[in-house]
Design brief:
By secondary structure, this protein is α+β, with helices and mostly antiparallel strands. It is built from 14 helices and 48 strands. It starts with a helix and ends in a 10-residue tail after the last helix.
Amino acid sequence: MPPDSVVRLARAVQKHNPAVWLDFQDTRGHETEYAAAMAAYEFVMRALDGKPVDVSLAINGRTTPPAPASAAGVWFYAAGGSGAQVLLTGHATVPGSWRMTAVLGIGDEVRMSLVPHGNVLPELQFRAETLSPAGLQCRAETNALVIRAVAGAGAVRLTEFALHGVPAALHPTRRPFSRAPVIGSPDLHPAIVSALVEWDWRMQDGIQTPREPRTYSQAVEKLIRRTDRLVAERLNLGTLGAEQRAAWTTLRAAALPPPDDVLAGEARWLELHRLRREIVLADPLFKHPALLFVKHVPSVMSHQLTQVYGYCARPGGGVFALTEPGVSMRTRDLTPASLPPGNFMTPELSYDGAKVLFAYCPVKEAPGTWDFNDQTRHLRYHLYELDLGSGAVRPLTQGDTDNFSPVILPGGEVLFISTRRGGYHRCGRGPCFVYTLARMGADGQDPHSVSFHETHEWDPSLLNDGRVVYTRWDYVDRNAVHYAQLWSALPDGSNARIYYGNNTWNPTGIWEARAIPGSSRIMATAAPHHGMSAGSVIRLDTARGVDGPEPLTRLTPDVRFPESEFPLAFGPNPATAHDFDTPITQYWRSPLLEPGMETTAPEEELRWPGHCYKSPWPLSETCFIVSYSFDQLVGEPGPNLPNMFGLYFADAFGNKELIYRDPAISSLWARPLARRAPPPELAGPVPHAGHETGTFFLANVREGWPALPDTAAITHLRIVQVLLKTTPNADAPPVGAAFAAPGKQVLGTVPVEADGSAYFEAPARTPVLFQALNAQGRAVQTMRSLVYLQPGENQSCAGCHEHRLKAVAPGPPPQALRRAPSRIKRGPDGSLPLSYPRLVQPVLDRHCVPCHDGKEPGRPVLTGEPEGPFTKSYNALVSRVSFSAWGRPEQNFEPLTTPLRFGAAASPLAQMLDQGHGNVSLTPEDAERLSTWMDANALFYGTFDVAEQVKQLAGQVIDGPSE
């Protein structure tokens, strides 16, 4: 064919395969030379054959599988702790991307075998670069590449792999799937470390990546921009050395190679990266003698709940120290030898740097499912203390509970997360045991719950002022997905209140919050609901607000917020061989929109869909240690890759440098292994012996956000207890028409003074919410959250959902404080415990059943006969009540509750009675009964106990829940 046709064909192929290299010289015009044209044609046809060649690797005659999964094209092979090491990097879909670094001892042999396609024997070519004084013998044999250390130990780098003159596409044989413990890699040889760091640069910048590839020239432009910002910051802080400043100025000013000069472009790109790394690692903030971290296999079920259950734990890992961060990847294994294989997580270091606390679950093999069954019910995380000097280890918790995320308090006691309080979450299937804040002595004595929230809490840490910041899942009468946000409390659990985001939909949730040294701001991870806590690193400044995007700064804008801004992939079924790459066909997506959402995918997201960060440790407002994964974060129902995360030094300017990666297992929760000063020790209330109450003080109920209507005079507060769910699985059993509703019972009412103040006594350790009642006894505003008291605690707030940043004007002492605290006045029969048959049905029997007895066709039946899980009257009336539930109009009017939106004041049933209905004339008590029921979100039962519900359905009195 004419040469110009070959050129056109080759250029068309290049669009689909950028590794095709077009080398054409027009020396004969349009004259066709058959042999040359056929050679070009055959080259193009071979390039079109995108099927990669299967390869396996043997070290000293023994077949050696790589790590169990692909960490962005990294395949690592090792022969024991001190034997030969081989790093193979590349992507099967990018021919020509493959690179190999091999380190061999004297007499070692590495053989990479290639499986031929049909009858065609691979003819392998490569370029070898010696990395040591003693060169290694490298040669291509039939269907194989052989590397031998004949003259002595050495290292070599192989690049430019080609088969029949065409850039090679390889497909390494993976390690067979196994549920056995994941074994970590030996310490990496310096030549392997250098190759791994360079490969990391390539994957960050898009050099020969499967998606969004970039040329060296394009990568250099972005690299210079990011390093310029870093250099400017360091110059401003006075932490950039004169030599580094001069080197960057010189290199920055040098002319860039022409875009088509690939070799010169690569050289300049490498030179810039090496200097950038030198500048990053020279930052005093990153100068640490060692880092403490944990090697960890993510759980068998990726979800915000199941990521920390012992029955979902996969075995592998331990506690480690990175001994020379940024200098080498040598580690020191701190894992107690007395502990059998298991899963490790959430390390904590004592202030003197002498002891490490960590969570550990002994598990011999990964469970086949995430079910709580006879094979997994014994698996629990417990807290252990390791003395770094002696190596002695001791358990601090025990029993049939999960315990993790320890925080050593300034006085030596330990705050942690535990399932010891009991209960289950209300949505989805399980069992998903509720875990909340708990506390114990330094030796593990007197473990007890200090949070009485009705569902889950995570990741406590101490703020610089001594308070605790943590994540609370707060979905009382709201959507279950969008409210895992930040709260604060004193270390004894008192003064629990919102810190940020309880009316915010984006991000879906915030975890892993930590105080920034010398700052009032914090750093945290914006993460999904249906996946483990990983996503994008953010900085929060609550001086700018406690909701919405204004207080939030994206420190890693290359990762949008998973699930709310970027769809979260469904993970593979854990019963399958889930260590391998699995095609994604479904996603978790939030249907909700909020101002400030990022709708444009950044370049890095297009290159690495689902890439993510985890466990940031702040060093300053802009610098942090963090774990990062190129590989995709997946969510429910499957597990994530065991080796997805490596450790990085990172900054807010887009620079991140790999400091450690174990190709076999994830590295997480890194922090400096050094002494640190404790924050101030804060004391809470000191309860009197036997004191089981506390007090609430409300300064002015009209300080509302949104504001209460001027026409609504607030005369009382109704105190509603939110019940702990005592049975697993959603709506099992239901307590009302709202799906997966929280259980409730009405403790009663307290007066509100003319100036809007209220002061009253309430039971301690009891989760409650408040309703502002008008003169009719109907709720004008309802709290869709909860608070609780510690024994003897006196808690106060400015208003009813007050704006947190609004200053309170001075004035005369509130009227409510001029007297003793009010006692709660109990409501009508059937409100405590809540029981529709006792609270509402008597009113219907007196006023409604004579006309609504079922005898007149078309009329609602209002008798108390059972119908399904409820009664005929309940089923007939509940649709005429405005109650909060998932799937209601306008996304259930979330996140902020508008006054008069729910309950009796907004219900067609109450409006009909107000306008007059037949001869019905309600007494004040009857009206109170109906309003109490409608305001309690129209629930039917006041218990999750099935046997007790049977009694309530029959109209019997029950004792009610103990919590």
